[in-house]
Write a structure and sequence with these properties.
The chain has about 55 residues and is an all-alpha fold. It has three helices and no strands.
Length: about 55
């Protein structure tokens, strides 16, 4: 069974742990904060792994 994407929880976590907050949403904020040498997709999965690890 697949669990729904916890977008609100992920957005709240980004704001609380990384100071990311934007009216455009988490995707735009990740894109804005991606460092040189990485891509927004790589950054998203890095953050997603960190988000998921906090629940373990």
């Amino acid at each position: 069974m697949n669990t729904p994407w916890p977008e609100d929880d992920f957005t709240r976590w980004l704001h609380e742990h990384h100071g990311m907050s934007s009216s455009l949403g988490w995707a735009a904020e990740i894109e804005r904060n991606t460092s040189v040498g990485s891509t927004p997709v790589e950054e998203f999965f890095r953050l997603l792994d960190a988000y998921r690890a906090r629940a373990e």
